[in-house]
Specification:
The structure holds two protein chains of two kinds. Chain A is an all-alpha fold. Chain A contains twelve helices and no strands. Chain A starts with a helix and ends with a helix. The two termini of chain B are 36 Å apart. The chains are: A mainly alpha, B alpha/beta. At the A-B interface, helix 2 and helix 6 of A face helix 2 and helix 3 of B.
Chain lengths: 251, 304
C-alpha cells in the first residue's frame, strides 16, 4: 500500500508544480494577489499601530485576512484544476495508470501547500519591510497554523470539487461557498454576536477555526490554548475528506 | 487460437438507460479486433468494463486470465489504454508525460525510441495544448505502449482527425499488431474497421448482432457485384444476354451496368466480354463494403 501510494507521487507533484508555474494567471493570482491585498489593507487600516487580539473586532488583522485569502485561493485553484481535469478526461486517463487515486489528489494538495508556504513567506517578508514592529509573530508557528488551516480548508475544497458539475461553474461555486466562510469566520464580527444558526454553521467551517488559531498564534498564545481549534481543524479535515471520497466523481 | 479477452453476457445500465444489454465476445492473441457500431451503441461502455474502469452489472470478463475488477492492479501493468477524446494537462510537455508514465510501470520501453517510432521526437519539448489532433493521438498511443502491454485498447482513435493524420495512425496500429500486441479497438468508421481489423463485431443497442472477418461478413450479407463499363460497339446488350439484364445509359459513349452475385461474377463478365470481342473503353466494378453490411443488418446507415 505504501509502495502503491509513493509510486509516481513525487514525480507527479514536481510535474504539477512545474505546470502550475507555466500558467501565468494562476501563478500571479496565487502568489501575488494576497500580498498586494495585505499591503493595501494594511496601509488603509493604519497598521503602524501594533494590533492586539482585543482589537480584532475592527479594524481586523490584515495579516490574518491575507493568510486566510492565501488558503482560499489555494482552494479555488484546486477546485478549478480538479474540475478542468475531470471535464477534460485527464483524471480518467491518470486513473487508468497504476497511479492510485490518493496519489493523484495528494500530489495536488502538496502542490497547493508548497505555494501556500511561498505565498506566506512573501507576505511575511512584505510585512517585515512595510510594517516594522507589527510583524512580531513567531514565523514557524504562524506558518504551521496556516498550513493546518489550509489543509483543512482544502478538504472542504475537495468536497466542492466533488460536486461541481462543470469547469465553467467551478470558479463561481467555489467563490460562492468560500467567501461567505470568511464573513462567518470571526475575522470581521465576533462569532458570539452572530445569530445562533450562523454560530452553528461557523463551527463546522474550517475557516473559523483557522482564524481563531491564527489570531491566537498572532497574539502569542501557544497552540495548547487553542487545542479545540486544532482538534476541530483535524476532525473537519477527516470528515470532509471521508465525505468527498464518497461523492467524488472521476469523470 | 488463444483468447486473451473473453466476455460473456456482459450487461451495464446507467440509471434506466441500458448501455450494454448482452455482449459476449472473444478476442484472440495477436489480432486487431474491432467493435463497430453507431454512437451510443455501447462500444465504449463495453470496452471500459473490459479494461476494468467500469463495474458491469452482469456477466463475466476475463482479460489475460485476470478479472478486471479483482486483479485491477496487475492488469494495469499488462494492458495499455487510450480513451476517446482524452486530454492531458494543457501545459505538460511531451517528454514529461512520457517520463511520468515510464515511472509508473515495472517494465518500460526506451522512451526516445518510442517517440521516434511515433514521429514525435521533434515535439519532445512541446506543450500538450500546442499539439495537433494527430500528434495528440500519437502521444496517447505512446502512453498506451510505454510499458509494452500485451493488449492495447483504442477507443475511437481517429475521430476528428483529417484523412492524412488518420492514415498515419492506421499505419501505426497495424505496426502494433505486427509486433505481437493484441489490439482491441472501437470505431464508427467502417473504412477504418475494414482497413485495420482482422475481425469485427457489429454492436447495436447494446447487443452484438454479427461477428466475423470483414471479408466473411461482406460475402455473407452482400454478395452483390456490379460491373460498369463503357463501349461504342453496337448490340452490346444482346451479345451479353446470357449474363442477364444489362442496363444501358446513353452518353458520349454508352454505359452498361450488369448486376450479379458471388465471387466469380466479375470473372464471368470479363470472359463473356472477351469472347464476344467487345471493345471496352472504361471498366469498373462495384463491390460492397462493411458499410453495406451494416446497412443491411441494421436497416440504417452508421451515421443516422
Amino acid at each position: 500500500m505504501r509502495i502503491q501510494f509513493l509510486r509516481g507521487f513525487w514525480k507527479l507533484t514536481w510535474l504539477e508544480t512545474k505546470i502550475f508555474t507555466r500558467e501565468p494567471m494562476g501563478f500571479v493570482g496565487t502568489l501575488v494577489m494576497p500580498v498586494i491585498l495585505f499591503i493595501v489593507l494594511g496601509r488603509a487600516l493604519g497598521a503602524n499601530e501594533p494590533v492586539t487580539t482585543a482589537q480584532v473586532d475592527l479594524p481586523f488583522n490584515a495579516a490574518i485576512l491575507a493568510a486566510v485569502l492565501i488558503a482560499i485561493s489555494a482552494v479555488q485553484s484546486l477546485v478549478a484544476i480538479i474540475s478542468i481535469y475531470r471535464e477534460g478526461g485527464i483524471l480518467k486517463r491518470l486513473r487508468a495508470t497504476p497511479l492510485s487515486p490518493v496519489t493523484i489528489l495528494g500530489a495536488h494538495v502538496v502542490v497547493k501547500l508548497i505555494f501556500t508556504v511561498i505565498s506566506l513567506a512573501l507576505l511575511l517578508l512584505a510585512g517585515r519591510r512595510l510594517f516594522p514592529g507589527v510583524m512580531q509573530v513567531n514565523v514557524f508557528s504562524f506558518t504551521m497554523a496556516v498550513l493546518l488551516g489550509t489543509l483543512s480548508i482544502l478538504s472542504l475544497g475537495f468536497l466542492i470539487a466533488s460536486v461541481v458539475p462543470t469547469a465553467r461553474f467551478a470558479g463561481l461555486i467555489s467563490a460562492a461557498a468560500l467567501y461567505p466562510m470568511i464573513a462567518l469566520s470571526g475575522l470581521f464580527f465576533p462569532i458570539d454576536r452572530l445569530p445562533s444558526a450562523f454560530q452553528w454553521i461557523s463551527f463546522v467551517l474550517p475557516t473559523t477555526h483557522a482564524v481563531a488559531l491564527l489570531q491566537g498564534v498572532w497574539a502569542g498564545t501557544g497552540w495548547e490554548a487553542h487545542w479545540v481549534n486544532v482538534a476541530a481543524l483535524l476532525v473537519l479535515f477527516a470528515a470532509y475528506t471521508a465525505l468527498s471520497s464518497k461523492v467524488f466523481r472521476w469523470e | 487460437m488463444k483468447a486473451v479477452i473473453a466476455v460473456s453476457n456482459l450487461g451495464k445500465r446507467y440509471g434506466r438507460t441500458v448501455a450494454v444489454d448482452d455482449v459476449s465476445l472473444e478476442v484472440f492473441e495477436g489480432e486487431i479486433f474491432g467493435l463497430i457500431g453507431p454512437n451510443g451503441a455501447g462500444k465504449t461502455t463495453t470496452m471500459e468494463c473490459v479494461q476494468g474502469s467500469r463495474v458491469p452489472d452482469k456477466g463475466t470478463i476475463s482479460v489475460l486470465g485476470l478479472d478486471p475488477q479483482r486483479d485491477a492492479n496487475e492488469l494495469r501493468q499488462r494492458i495499455g489504454v487510450q480513451h476517446q477524446e482524452a486530454h492531458l494537462q494543457k501545459r505538460i510537455k511531451v517528454w514529461e508525460a512520457v517520463d511520468l508514465w515510464s515511472s509508473l510501470y515495472t517494465r518500460v520501453v526506451d522512451a526516445d525510441a518510442l517517440l521516434a517510432r511515433l514521429g514525435l521526437e521533434a515535439k519532445r519539448n512541446a506543450w500538450f495544448m500546442t499539439l495537433s489532433g494527430g500528434q495528440k493521438q500519437r502521444l496517447f498511443i505512446a502512453l498506451a505502449l510505454i510499458h509494452e502491454p500485451e493488449v492495447v485498447f483504442l477507443d475511437e482513435l481517429t475521430t476528428g482527425l483529417d484523412p492524412q493524420a488518420r492514415r498515419a495512425i492506421w499505419g501505426l496500429v497495424t505496426g502494433i499488431r505486427d509486433r505481437g500486441t493484441t489490439v482491441f479497438l472501437t470505431t464508427h468508421l467502417m473504412e477504418e474497421a475494414e482497413r485495420l481489423c482482422d475481425r469485427v463485431a457489429i454492436i447495436e443497442h447494446g447487443r452484438i448482432i454479427e461477428l466475423g472477418t470483414p471479408d466473411d461478413l461482406v460475402r455473407k450479407y452482400c454478395p452483390e457485384r456490379t460491373v460498369v463499363f463503357t463501349s461504342v460497339d453496337a448490340n452490346v446488350g444482346e451479345r451479353l444476354h446470357q449474363l442477364g439484364a444489362v442496363e444501358r445509359a446513353e452518353g458520349s459513349e454508352a454505359t452498361y451496368t450488369i448486376r450479379g452475385e458471388g465471387d466469380d461474377f466479375v470473372t464471368e463478365v470479363i470472359n463473356v466480354i472477351a469472347r464476344e470481342g467487345i471493345r471496352v473503353r472504361g471498366f469498373r466494378t462495384e463491390i460492397p463494403a462493411l458499410e453495406d453490411v451494416f446497412l443491411k443488418l441494421t436497416g440504417h446507415g452508421i451515421r443516422d
